[in-house]
Design goal:
The complex is a heterodimer of chains A (115) and B (108). With 115 residues, chain A is an all-beta fold. Chain A has strands at 5-7, 10-13, 19-24, 31-38, 42-50, 53-56, 65-71, 74-79, 88-95, 105-106, 110-114. Chain B has strands spanning 4-6, 11-14, 19-25, 32-38, 44-50, 55-57, 60-65, 70-75, 84-92, 95-98, 102-107. In chain B, strands 2, 4, 5, 9, 10 and 11 form a six-stranded mixed beta sheet that branches. Chain B has a five-stranded antiparallel beta sheet with strand order 1-3-8-7-6, with no helix packed on it. The chains are: A mainly beta (115), B mainly beta (108). The interface between A and B is medium-sized, with 19 and 18 residues.
Chain lengths: 115, 108
């Protein structure tokens, strides 16, 4: 079975540019999470969706960040405009609450470098 | 007090030794607990859930102490392949909090 798929795997961009990260959750999973990981702050939850609806976006750092989940098999995290302090690894994870499971399955991550 | 706190390490342990990590949490209403493992430049993966009664999976034992609000992970007969970062995860009130992780290096 395919796991969580993220693209791109690496992104290098210049400050001020728009960055779009993509995620395809595991088929059948109804919860999706976006995380950011840095050495200083560890793994931080940015936002999560249940059944395509955003439930908690309190971790989204500021208005420059936005996330969408137009359908059950696709989500995007957008940064506009990007800043050097946004450099981090961004993980997407999914799980199935309908099976009363709490295990989250992580994608391989997108390594973002903003110059 | 931080919501979830772990000793960052690194723990440098000779192969075959036993090593233990603790993780403390601040929300007494937290409901479920997990240990994840993250290899260098990889994504976190579930290692094991932590139950009130304690649970064991091979060389790994996880325990929960609700009164003192901590969870622990014990690794016996450590292997070189156990070298990784171990993340403590606490769920509660619809919040999922990851600790920053404890780095473990198993030395040959």
């Amino acid at each position: 079975d395919a796991g969580v798929i993220q693209s791109p795997r690496h992104e290098v961009t210049e400050m001020g540019q728009e960055v779009t990260l993509r995620c395809k959750p595991i088929s059948g999973h109804n919860s999706l999470f976006w995380y950011r990981q840095t050495m200083m702050r560890g793994l931080e939850l940015l936002i999560y969706f249940n059944n395509n609806v955003p439930i908690d976006d309190s971790g989204m750092p500021e208005d420059r960040f936005s996330a969408k989940m137009p359908n059950a098999s696709f989500s995007t995290l957008k940064i506009q405009p990007s800043e050097p302090r946004d450099s981090a690894v961004y993980f997407c994870a999914s799980r199935s609450t309908s099976l009363n499971q709490e295990t989250q399955y992580f994608g391989p991550g997108t390594r973002l470098l903003v110059l | 007090r931080k919501e979830v706190e772990q000793d960052p390490g690194p723990f440098n342990v000779p192969e075959g030794a036993t090593v233990a990590f603790n993780c403390t949490y601040s929300n007494s209403a937290s409901q479920s607990f997990f240990w994840y493992r993250q290899d260098c430049r990889k994504e976190p993966k579930l290692l094991m859930s932590v139950y009130s009664s304690g649970n064991e999976d091979g060389r790994f034992t996880a325990q929960l102490n609700r009164a003192s609000q901590y969870i622990s992970l014990l690794i016996r007969d450590s292997k070189l392949s156990d070298s990784a970062t171990y993340l403590c995860v606490v769920n509660g009130d619809d919040k999922i909090i990851f600790g920053k992780g404890t780095r473990l290096h198993i030395l040959p």
